[in-house]
Structure of DUF397 domain-containing protein:
Amino acid sequence: MADIPTDLDWIRAAPENATGPGPWIEIAFGEGDDDEAPVYLRETSDPATVVTTNRRKWDAFVLGVQAGEFDHFVEGVELDGVDGTAPARPEK
């Protein structure tokens, strides 16, 4: 596994009004601004486990989310509005 820089600026991906410890996803961008520059992801409940990708793949993922390509993964799930967390998934 590649060494993860210790000076990363982690950005929490949580609703603006969210409170509490999450778990939330956090993203950090490594040095560089080209397509191969590293992007790091982790969950607040397990910050020692970090997934690494690159800027090209991250940008493609974000564009896919914006285009609704992943909406089927959250059908029937709505934020509860209290702390920004989603309730348990409905039974299928």
The longest helix spans residues 55-66. Helices lie at 55-66.
